[in-house]
Write a structure and sequence with these properties.
Elements lengths: L1 E6 L7 H14 L3 E4 L3 H6 L48 H13 L4 E6 L1 H11 L5 E6 L15 H22 L1 E7 L6 H10 L3 E3 L7 H13 L5 E6 L7 H9 L6 E6 L11 H19 L5 E6 L2 E6 H6 L6 H10 L2
Parallel strand pairs: 1-2, 1-3, 3-4, 4-9, 5-7, 5-8, 6-7
Antiparallel strand pairs: 9-10
Bound molecules: 6-O-phosphono-beta-D-fructofuranose.
């Protein structure tokens, strides 16, 4: 089997560990791996990672193959050695047909795309005009895919956010201010809720729950009456209030008990060395994706649920919103007193 592996969409810490696992698991079972650079855009430009060439089955001696050494010393790094992109051209029927032709031309039988919902939507579109098989791995800091308890990169992103929030807490405490800290998550509040719980923030505002600014200000006033002198509010970028800046304006128009500053963590959350949890998750899922392809599976995402590796049809990963656990929201309310 010749496997094509690529990363696509927003990069996530642990993507390199996943690529490494795909390459080494495939090689261990006698398969070949082509590293496609820059996601679907790179595929359309035949932009292959030039790993050292080993033996080939001779179908097209020009296609560069990855070796075990091509993925040496990448496990611990954030970003992605294969680079990533979001391709407009691939979104078109013509682009998808061209991508299918390029895959066939280079003898690629199966694909492992590593990315989020946009990547998997692309895989489903490609499968309509290409007869190869596809098993994806969930690589996104957002943790917004059903079919896996956690996505690759989420744990690192939350740890990065918590480290930043802890630091901001020092200055908030010293100056008796409130900080509105915006974290990533266009459609999902996982980063906001987990980082708020882990950093002991007062509030987590997220896309899954309505934001009532009057009620928020009342809770802040009540907190002050209980003796709080500073406050941390974590706002997901996709919160209905429109993010931390918009919330700041809305709060200013009311009787907010704190002088307030805004911090947008932004792409900082996407970088850095992956945590142990992300490295292990990525390694497990990359290897499992290869096993699933060997077993003849297709059209699925490899995930980990309750400690077990499982496959979920691509469409289900994005069509079913992974719910935020209400218990965690209640726990935050209780612990923020
Ligand atoms: O999907 C991952 C993500 O980091 C989101 O949290 C964020 O909204 C988006 O990507 C940012 O995308 P870009 O890198 O294109 O600005």
């Amino acid at each position: 089997m010749r496997i094509g592996v690529f990363t696509s969409g927003g990069d996530a810490p642990g993507m390199n560990a996943c690529v490494r696992a795909v390459v080494r698991s495939a090689l261990a079972q006698g398969h070949e791996v082509v590293g496609i650079r820059r996601g679907y855009a790179g595929l359309l430009e035949r932009d292959f990672h030039r790993g050292m060439r080993t033996e080939s089955d001779g179908r097209d001696p020009e296609t560069p193959l990855l070796t075990a050494r091509s993925v040496s010393n990448v496990l611990q790094h954030g970003g992605t050695m294969l680079r990533t992109s979001r391709s407009q051209r691939f979104m078109t029927d013509e682009g998808q047909r061209e991508a299918a032709a390029i895959l066939s031309e280079h003898g690629i039988d199966v694909l492992v795309p590593i990315g989020g919902d946009g990547t998997f939507r692309g895989a489903v579109a490609l499968a309509r005009c290409w007869d190869g098989r596809i098993i994806g791995c969930p690589g996104t800091i957002d943790n917004d895919l059903s079919g896996t308890d956690y996505t690759i990169g989420f744990d690192t992103a939350v740890n990065t956010a918590v480290e930043a929030i802890d630091k901001i807490r020092d200055t908030a405490d010293a100056t008796e201010r409130m900080f509105l800290i915006e974290v990533m998550g266009r459609h999902s509040g996982y980063i906001a809720l987990d980082s708020a719980l882990a950093a002991g923030a007062e509030e987590a505002l997220m896309p899954e729950t309505p934001t009532d600014v009057d009620a928020l200000v009342k809770r802040l006033v009540a907190g002050k009456e209980r003796g709080k002198t500073s406050s941390m509010v974590i706002v997901a970028e996709g919160d209905p209030c429109g993010g931390a800046e918009a919330l700041h304006q809305a709060i200013k128009a009311r009787q907010c008990p704190y002088e307030t500053r805004v911090l947008i963590l932004g792409h900082l959350q996407r970088g850095g060395s992956p945590t142990v949890r992300d490295r292990i998750l990525a390694s497990r899922l990359g290897a499992f994706a290869v096993d699933a392809l060997v077993a003849g599976e297709t059209g699925m995402m490899a995930g980990e649920v309750a400690g077990e590796v499982v496959l979920t049809p691509f469409e289900k990963t994005w069509s079913e919103h992974k719910p935020i656990t209400p218990d965690w929201i209640r726990l935050l309310e209780i612990l923020a007193r």
